[in-house]
Amino acid sequence: MSGPIPVHFVAAGKFHDIDFARLEILKLLAEEPRIRTTVACDFSDMDRLAECGTLITYTCVVLPSEKETAALKTFLERGGRWLALHGTNSILEFLESGLVSCPETADEFMSLLGTQFKAHPPIGQMKVEVTDKTHPMTRGIEDFETVDELYLSKTKADIDVLMKTRFTGEATGFEEADWDESDVPILYTRDHGTKGGGVLYNTLGHCRGHYDVAELMPFWPHPERCSWDYPVYYQLLRRGIRWAIGELE
Could you tell me whether strands 100-101 and 169-170 are parallel, antiparallel, or unpaired per DSSP bridges? Predict the structure, then answer.
């Protein structure tokens, strides 16, 4: 058996039940006894990142500084693998008009990820289509239905889409509300460098508890678990962790 596998996990942000997501991911990481995980609430521990070959993020409106972005780029170029989940690519600003804006003020960070969140329609049912049935992440998984917060994003760099859905309609409440692009990436990879580094982004996995939007509503009456209620999502998470530690090829 090989030695310990160092993993750095950043779990923090707004408008989501970060405690729930953090615990669920940690339970999955604990299924592999070699994994030794540190947990952070931002990207500031660059020394720890330099020690790891795996980064996992479940965040929302958590952005690295320029120095931290450079450290992320170095991490990827030396062969590091980054499993990015749900809101990692989000920047949100609430305008006086009541609309939500997603300004493009962190282009280098979003380029590393490959996309930037721009809007989402109300939570609802969607059909997820497997577009690459040969990739280890998707092999043997059929198209499936889920209920989730559909991330409508702007592509910022070359990505390889493994799963997608289709959407045309209105993202109510967002500055960029009208969408007529039919294909929306759900799961994709982005390669970095020549040493096997890269990003695996899974946009599914919204969750919200009673107290996670206190700025807007003191008590959210109906907790949301979305794709966390579906076994296929946990299958993708387990495979994503294996990909991130270099054991899914």
Answer: unpaired
Supply the DSSP string of the chain, one letter for each residue. ----EEEEEEEEESSS-HHHHHHHHHHHHTTSTTEEEEEESSS--HHHHHH-SEEEEEEES----HHHHHHHHHHHHTT-EEEEEGGGG---EE-TTS-EE-----HHHHHHHSEEEEE-PSSEEEEEEES-SSSTTTTTPPPEEEEE-PPEEEE-S--EEEEEEE--EE-TTBSS-EE---EEEEEEEEEETTTTEEEEEE-----B-TTTTTTT-SS-SS-B-GGGGSHHHHHHHHHHHHHHTT---
Q: Which two tokens stand for residue 199?
A: 């990003």
pLDDT range class, residue 228, cuts 50, 70, 90:
very high
Cα–Cα distance for residue pair 93/3, rounded to 1 Å: 44
End-to-end CA distance of the chain: 19
Handedness of CA 165, 57, 149, 155 (dihedral sign): negative
Q: Residue 165 has which token pair? A: 């859905």
pTM: predicted TM-score of the whole model, two decimal places: 0.98
How many other C-beta atoms are found inside a 10 Å radius of the C-beta of residue 186? 25
Position 44, amino acid: S
Q: How confident is the model at residue 1 (pLDDT cuts 50, 70, 90)?
A: low
Q: Beta-carbon neighbour count of residue 210 at 10 Å?
A: 14
Amino acid at 25: I
For residue 137, what are the β-bridge partners? none
